[in-house]
Amino acid sequence: MLETYNFWKNIWDNKGKDKTESxxxxxxxxxxxxxxSSKQITExxxxxxxxxxxxxxxxxxxxxxFLSREFNSNYTGVDYSKDIVDKHLSLxxxxxxxxxxxxxxxxxxxxxxxxxxxxxxQYLPNESFADSVINEMIRISRKSVLLVDLKNTKTHDxxxxxxxxxxIEKGFTFSDCIYNPEDETRYNALLEI
Length: 193
Hints:
The chain is an alpha/beta fold. It has helices at about 1-15, 25, 40-50, 80-90, 125-140, 165-170; strands at about 55-60, 75-80, 95-100, 110-120, 140-150, 175, 185-190.
Protein backbone atom coordinates (compact mmCIF):
# COMPACT_ATOMS: atom_id res chain seq x y z
CA MET A 1 0.00 0.00 0.00
CA LEU A 2 2.69 2.49 1.00
CA GLU A 3 4.58 2.02 -2.27
CA THR A 4 1.52 2.91 -4.39
CA TYR A 5 0.56 5.77 -2.09
CA ASN A 6 4.06 7.27 -2.30
CA PHE A 7 4.28 6.70 -6.06
CA TRP A 8 1.21 8.87 -6.73
CA LYS A 9 1.98 11.39 -3.99
CA ASN A 10 5.40 12.00 -5.55
CA ILE A 11 3.75 12.67 -8.92
CA TRP A 12 1.28 15.16 -7.40
CA ASP A 13 3.98 16.83 -5.31
CA ASN A 14 6.01 17.33 -8.49
CA LYS A 15 2.99 18.79 -10.30
CA GLY A 16 2.70 21.24 -7.41
CA LYS A 17 6.35 22.25 -7.82
CA ASP A 18 6.11 22.49 -11.62
CA LYS A 19 6.03 26.07 -12.90
CA THR A 20 3.46 25.38 -15.64
CA GLU A 21 0.43 27.63 -15.50
CA SER A 22 -1.72 25.16 -17.41
CA UNK A 23 -4.43 23.91 -15.09
CA UNK A 24 -5.13 21.02 -17.49
CA UNK A 25 -1.52 19.81 -17.21
CA UNK A 26 -1.26 20.36 -13.47
CA UNK A 27 -4.60 18.63 -12.87
CA UNK A 28 -3.53 15.51 -14.76
CA UNK A 29 -6.06 15.78 -17.60
CA UNK A 30 -3.45 15.71 -20.40
CA UNK A 31 -3.96 12.00 -21.16
CA UNK A 32 -7.65 12.46 -21.94
CA UNK A 33 -7.82 12.83 -25.71
CA UNK A 34 -10.94 15.01 -25.79
CA UNK A 35 -11.56 18.64 -24.86
CA UNK A 36 -12.07 19.01 -21.11
CA SER A 37 -14.18 21.83 -19.67
CA SER A 38 -14.06 22.63 -15.95
CA LYS A 39 -17.40 24.42 -16.32
CA GLN A 40 -19.03 21.36 -17.91
CA ILE A 41 -17.68 19.08 -15.16
CA THR A 42 -18.71 21.36 -12.28
CA GLU A 43 -22.19 21.86 -13.77
CA UNK A 44 -22.46 18.07 -14.00
CA UNK A 45 -21.39 17.72 -10.36
CA UNK A 46 -23.94 20.33 -9.26
CA UNK A 47 -26.73 18.69 -11.26
CA UNK A 48 -25.93 15.10 -10.23
CA UNK A 49 -25.64 15.96 -6.53
CA UNK A 50 -28.65 18.30 -6.60
CA UNK A 51 -26.52 21.05 -5.07
CA UNK A 52 -27.85 24.60 -4.75
CA UNK A 53 -26.07 27.94 -4.27
CA UNK A 54 -26.45 27.88 -0.48
CA UNK A 55 -25.04 24.36 -0.05
CA UNK A 56 -21.59 23.90 1.46
CA UNK A 57 -19.39 21.85 -0.89
CA UNK A 58 -16.21 19.94 -0.10
CA UNK A 59 -13.91 18.60 -2.82
CA UNK A 60 -11.54 15.79 -1.91
CA UNK A 61 -8.38 15.97 -4.06
CA UNK A 62 -8.90 19.56 -5.21
CA UNK A 63 -5.51 19.76 -6.89
CA UNK A 64 -4.45 23.11 -8.35
CA UNK A 65 -7.98 24.47 -8.70
CA PHE A 66 -9.11 23.22 -12.10
CA LEU A 67 -12.65 22.64 -10.80
CA SER A 68 -12.71 24.84 -7.70
CA ARG A 69 -12.49 28.05 -9.72
CA GLU A 70 -16.03 27.32 -10.98
CA PHE A 71 -17.69 27.06 -7.53
CA ASN A 72 -19.09 29.82 -5.33
CA SER A 73 -17.92 30.95 -1.91
CA ASN A 74 -19.42 27.91 -0.12
CA TYR A 75 -16.64 25.72 -1.55
CA THR A 76 -13.80 24.11 0.43
CA GLY A 77 -11.08 21.88 -0.99
CA VAL A 78 -8.55 19.47 0.44
CA ASP A 79 -5.57 17.71 -1.08
CA TYR A 80 -2.89 15.50 0.48
CA SER A 81 -0.07 17.23 -1.38
CA LYS A 82 1.19 20.37 0.34
CA ASP A 83 2.94 21.36 -2.89
CA ILE A 84 -0.34 21.13 -4.83
CA VAL A 85 -2.16 23.13 -2.13
CA ASP A 86 0.58 25.79 -2.20
CA LYS A 87 0.31 26.05 -5.99
CA HIS A 88 -3.49 26.17 -5.77
CA LEU A 89 -3.35 29.03 -3.29
CA SER A 90 -0.77 30.89 -5.38
CA LEU A 91 -3.20 30.76 -8.33
CA UNK A 92 -6.40 31.32 -6.32
CA UNK A 93 -5.45 33.00 -3.03
CA UNK A 94 -9.04 33.53 -1.89
CA UNK A 95 -9.95 29.82 -2.02
CA UNK A 96 -10.58 27.87 1.19
CA UNK A 97 -8.07 25.04 0.65
CA UNK A 98 -6.09 22.92 3.09
CA UNK A 99 -3.81 19.91 3.29
CA UNK A 100 -5.61 16.76 4.49
CA UNK A 101 -5.67 13.05 3.83
CA UNK A 102 -8.92 11.76 2.36
CA UNK A 103 -9.13 8.89 4.86
CA UNK A 104 -9.01 11.18 7.92
CA UNK A 105 -10.67 14.51 7.16
CA UNK A 106 -10.37 17.35 9.69
CA UNK A 107 -14.08 18.23 9.69
CA UNK A 108 -16.95 17.58 12.06
CA UNK A 109 -19.78 15.19 11.24
CA UNK A 110 -22.37 16.56 8.78
CA UNK A 111 -20.38 19.73 8.12
CA UNK A 112 -20.92 19.82 4.32
CA UNK A 113 -23.99 19.34 2.16
CA UNK A 114 -22.16 17.79 -0.78
CA UNK A 115 -18.82 16.01 -0.65
CA UNK A 116 -17.25 14.97 -3.94
CA UNK A 117 -14.05 13.88 -5.58
CA UNK A 118 -13.21 13.84 -9.27
CA UNK A 119 -10.66 11.46 -10.74
CA UNK A 120 -9.29 10.62 -7.30
CA UNK A 121 -10.18 6.98 -6.72
CA GLN A 122 -7.80 5.61 -9.34
CA TYR A 123 -4.91 7.00 -7.25
CA LEU A 124 -5.94 5.33 -3.98
CA PRO A 125 -3.68 2.50 -2.84
CA ASN A 126 -6.25 -0.24 -2.17
CA GLU A 127 -9.83 -1.17 -1.27
CA SER A 128 -9.39 -0.75 2.48
CA PHE A 129 -8.12 2.80 2.02
CA ALA A 130 -10.95 3.52 -0.44
CA ASP A 131 -13.49 2.24 2.11
CA SER A 132 -12.03 4.64 4.69
CA VAL A 133 -12.30 7.52 2.22
CA ILE A 134 -15.94 6.70 1.46
CA ASN A 135 -16.72 6.42 5.18
CA GLU A 136 -15.15 9.82 5.81
CA MET A 137 -17.08 11.38 2.93
CA ILE A 138 -20.33 9.95 4.31
CA ARG A 139 -19.48 11.06 7.85
CA ILE A 140 -19.10 14.72 6.94
CA SER A 141 -21.92 14.94 4.37
CA ARG A 142 -25.50 16.01 5.02
CA LYS A 143 -26.95 15.44 1.54
CA SER A 144 -24.77 13.59 -0.92
CA VAL A 145 -21.47 11.95 -1.73
CA LEU A 146 -20.39 11.96 -5.37
CA LEU A 147 -17.48 10.01 -6.84
CA VAL A 148 -16.78 11.48 -10.27
CA ASP A 149 -14.76 9.83 -13.03
CA LEU A 150 -14.46 6.28 -11.74
CA LYS A 151 -13.00 3.68 -14.09
CA ASN A 152 -14.13 0.16 -14.95
CA THR A 153 -10.57 -0.91 -15.75
CA LYS A 154 -7.04 0.27 -15.03
CA THR A 155 -5.32 2.52 -17.55
CA HIS A 156 -2.03 2.44 -15.63
CA ASP A 157 -0.52 -0.53 -13.78
CA UNK A 158 -0.57 1.42 -10.47
CA UNK A 159 -4.19 2.57 -10.82
CA UNK A 160 -6.83 1.25 -8.45
CA UNK A 161 -10.33 0.27 -9.57
CA UNK A 162 -13.06 0.16 -6.93
CA UNK A 163 -15.67 -2.54 -7.51
CA UNK A 164 -19.08 -1.41 -8.76
CA UNK A 165 -20.60 -4.25 -6.73
CA UNK A 166 -19.11 -2.78 -3.53
CA UNK A 167 -20.55 0.62 -4.42
CA ILE A 168 -23.97 -0.95 -5.00
CA GLU A 169 -23.74 -2.60 -1.56
CA LYS A 170 -23.10 0.85 -0.06
CA GLY A 171 -26.19 2.29 -1.81
CA PHE A 172 -24.54 4.21 -4.65
CA THR A 173 -26.28 4.76 -7.98
CA PHE A 174 -24.46 5.35 -11.26
CA SER A 175 -24.45 7.85 -14.10
CA ASP A 176 -22.53 8.32 -17.33
CA CYS A 177 -19.16 10.06 -17.50
CA ILE A 178 -19.80 13.81 -17.18
CA TYR A 179 -17.28 14.98 -19.78
CA ASN A 180 -17.77 12.13 -22.26
CA PRO A 181 -21.11 10.27 -21.94
CA GLU A 182 -20.13 7.89 -24.76
CA ASP A 183 -17.17 6.57 -22.74
CA GLU A 184 -18.57 3.39 -21.20
CA THR A 185 -15.33 2.73 -19.28
CA ARG A 186 -15.88 5.73 -16.97
CA TYR A 187 -18.81 6.61 -14.73
CA ASN A 188 -19.91 8.50 -11.62
CA ALA A 189 -21.35 7.11 -8.38
CA LEU A 190 -23.80 9.04 -6.18
CA LEU A 191 -24.91 8.29 -2.65
CA GLU A 192 -27.79 10.35 -1.30
CA ILE A 193 -27.66 10.65 2.48
